Amino acid sequence: MPRVFQRVEAVRRWRSERGRVATRKLADTPALFAEMRQPTTDYVAIPTVSSETRRYIPIAFLSHKVIASNQIYVLPSATLYHFGMLTSGMHMDWVRQVCGRLKSDFRYSNKLVYNNFPWPQDVPEKRRSAVEAAAQGVLDARAKFKGQTLDDLYHPLLMPKLLYVAHRLLDRAVDRCYRREPFSSDHARVEFLFNLYQRLSAPLTAPVKSRRREGSPGTTTQPCPALPTRPAARGSAPRPKTTRQRGPDIQFRLFDISTV
Question: Rounded to an integer, what distance in angstroms lies between the CA atom of residue 11 and that of residue 28?
């Protein structure tokens, strides 16, 4: 218990020294979390920062009993299909192009990366099931290496062959959700994804009319360039209707529940 008391006292000091009034008030209850956002279900955890040298970001399924720190994004109630899509080579190719960077490492973003990721459209149940089976294969391969962390397993030079093969099978299953023909390279995947994104985001952009001065020649209406989009916040104006199929209807949240 002495170490617990030391930890609580450290939290109290840290909060009392902050400039934000709300944080200083929380110093009165140093043993309580500042924000209670812990999932009530098992969840997929995505690290906010990951090495650029990794072929795949080490995404994991975690129990709701594992406290989520402020260094991961969580996706509550996610399925094997969602896990498979997010840990695939297709999603990684998207990450490499659009995510931010911390130095040169990947800095994942729920708004820029996840919310704009072009999920495959109208996926047949057979292909969805294939992704789920391949995703389970990745988890099974990880489970065979007892005592090794995800950092060990996803080392760019020391990744076990069994795990690498499982990921390659998952990549093929995910690729088939987008089209029947295989992709010849990562560049081909990126080109396909951006074309898909442009097509899916087109209904969300409105034409912009240029102002015309009196006596000036006529002007034409040009479409606004396709910009990254976000889900509308609660209470905001509704978006134009679109047939775009997105990821799961569950919000990514950054859990800032660490207290020091």
Answer: 10
User: Do 136 and 188 belong together in one domain?
Assistant: yes
Which pTM was predicted?
0.73
Q: Tell me the pLDDT tens digit for each residue of 25-45.
A: 999 999 998 877 788 899 999
Distance CA 90, CA 87 (A): 8
Q: Do 24 and 112 belong together in one domain?
A: no
In residues, how long is the chain? 260
Residue range of the domain that includes 26 = 1-32
Q: What is the pLDDT of residue 33?
A: 85
Report d(CA 50, CA 104) in Å as an integer: 10
Look up tokens 């360039």; give the residue.
Answer: 225
**Between the CA atoms of 84, 85, 86 and 90, what dihedral angle is there, to the nearest 10 degrees?**
120
* Domains contained in the chain, number: 2
Q: How many CA within 13 A on the CB side of residue 142?
A: 17
